[in-house]
Automatic annotation (TrEMBL):
GO molecular function, one term: hexuronate transmembrane transporter activity
Cited Pfam families: MFS_1
Keyword Transmembrane helix listed: yes
GO cellular component, one term: membrane
Protein name according to UniProt: MFS transporter
PROSITE patterns assigned: MFS (PS50850)
TM stretches of this protein: 69-88, 100-119, 162-185, 191-209, 252-273, 293-314, 326-344, 350-372, 384-407, 419-441
SUPFAM superfamilies: MFS general substrate transporter
CDD domains from the UniProt entry: MFS_ExuT_GudP_like (cd17319)
Principal localisation: membrane
Domain Major facilitator superfamily (MFS) profile positions: 35-446
Membrane topology classification: Multi-pass membrane protein
Domain of life assignment: Bacteria
Organism: Adhaeribacter arboris
Length: 450
């Protein structure tokens, strides 16, 4: 099948040269963007399901007498399971393929999301939260691998930025949808309704997705364009890639450290921003929140804009890795103003500052995921994303312990705002540290051979 596709590609009249990548014909076909849309909606659902508990936090605190530390422990359980799920699904998807791996992932997380409605204790929430994290971890290894299978390098950051913007859309939709369901029905129904959405997406995924070499709707020119980087088409499965081999290569550590140093910041934005606005500016979380919607809408522009910027630089002739790193450095500067959030005179100034930082994080995320497909072969993309994602999730699991204990300490002293100020300073400098580490690791990087 691969050979027949390649012959069709040659017949389509594409041309190559050592210095010029294949230039697409005017009508290459656009089915790859259908795939991108599927990944976008899956990521949106993924983030709606994980965001529900943050929006219901004040209600659940009253229902189950949670402290900030209790809530931090629940978040930690989710993050720990998410870390474990990353490494499981990362290798699993490389072995069985994107289509089936994604299917199993979304079934697990959708069932877990709905099970939240049935639990009656803090321990019960920890258990179902762990199952949710395990299932949700399959989303990014599968999505990044699908992008590597369906897009050339010059378009991967943009495609990643688009599907990654689903994290933002999910975070926008949840503050509108969840309070409405809470007011109309109750907190149990909020978990049931949002959890069921994943099964609707699953129908579209199963009938619309396949790898390019087996897909009936892809045209020969589009197949040629997808593989214009002269990297062989990804096989359906490659056997097991060992951790020991992946951890020996510098490329894996670029992604690991990039995730470890920045993932906790996003999780802080995701799980504590509603509570921050409620405690600092008396925001009523029982009503749809325009303030949160604006913050998470900004992240949509950050995700797509960050992907577009590095793709634009590559099309202008920049080396791929230089374009990615230049974009990441711009992102680090954009996050820095969050240290001034403590001086915000009102909620709208705080919304503006935090919106910029959250948008910048998503621009970072779009490029750090894409770097994996730039520097490792397609057959190892999901495994490397799994290893790095696990490391980032472990860091994110530990960070809530600091957040919870810090906020409880300052809350007891009657000054919880000071605790948030410390956290914003940490967030502001995290990306510069991460960029410097990535720059050192990639200074003399050579192609990897697995």
């Amino acid at each position: 099948m691969e050979n027949s596709k390649s012959l069709k590609f040659q017949a389509a009249g594409a041309t190559t040269s050592p210095t010029n990548p294949i230039t697409p014909e005017p009508k290459t076909g656009n089915y790859r963007w259908v795939v991108c849309a599927l990944l976008f909606f899956a990521t949106t659902i993924n983030y709606i399901d994980r965001q529900v508990i943050g929006l219901l936090k004040p209600t659940l605190e009253n229902e189950f007498n949670w402290t900030e530390t209790d809530y931090g422990n629940i978040v930690m359980v989710f993050a720990s399971s998410y870390a474990l799920g990353y490494i499981i699904f990362g290798n699993f998807i490389d072995r069985i393929g994107t289509k089936l791996g994604y299917t199993i992932s979304i079934i697990i997380w959708s069932v877990a999301a709905m099970l939240h409605a049935l639990v009656k204790s803090t321990l019960g929430f920890s258990i179902v939260r762990g199952l949710l994290g395990l299932g949700e971890a399959g989303n990014f290894p599968a999505a990044v691998k699908a992008v590597a299978e369906w897009f050339p390098k010059k378009e991967r950051a943009l495609a990643t930025g688009i599907f990654n913007s689903g994290t933002s859309i999910g975070a926008v939709a949840a503050p509108i949808l969840v309070p409405w369901i809470l007011g109309a029905y109750g907190w149990q129904e909020a978990f049931l309704i949002t959890g069921a959405i994943g099964f609707i997406w699953l129908l579209f995924w199963w009938f619309l997705y396949e790898i390019p070499s087996r897909h009936k709707k892809i045209t020969p020119p589009e197949f040629a364009y997808i593989h214009s980087d002269n990297e062989p088409p990804a096989p359906e499965n490659t056997g097991k890639l060992k951790w020991s081999r992946l951890l020996q290569i510098r490329q894996t550590w670029v992604f690991i450290l990039g995730k470890v140093l920045t993932d906790p910041v996003w999780w802080f934005f995701l799980f504590w921003l509603p509570s921050y606005f409620a405690t600092t500016f008396n925001l009523d979380l029982k009503k749809p929140s325009l303030h949160l919607a604006i913050v998470y809408t900004a992240t949509t522009f950050g995700s797509i804009g960050g992907g577009y910027l590095s793709s634009y630089l590559i099309k202008r002739g920049w080396p791929v890795l230089k374009a990615r790193k230049a974009t990441l450095l711009c992102v680090a500067f954009a996050v820095l103003p969050i240290i001034l959030a403590q001086y915000a005179p009102n909620i709208w100034v705080a919304v503006g500052i935090i919106s910029l930082a959250a948008a910048a994080h998503q621009a970072w995320s779009a490029n750090i995921f894409t770097i994996v497909s730039d520097i490792v072969p397609k057959k190892a993309v999901s495994s490397v994303v799994g290893v790095g994602g696990m490391a980032g999730s472990i860091a994110s699991a530990l960070f809530p312990l600091l957040v919870g204990s810090l906020l409880d300490s300052y809350k007891a002293a009657g000054n919880i705002g000071a605790g948030y100020n410390i956290l914003f300073i940490i967030c502001g400098f995290a990306y510069f540290v991460a960029w410097f580490v990535i720059h050192l690791l990639t200074a003399r990087m050579k192609p990897v051979d697995l």
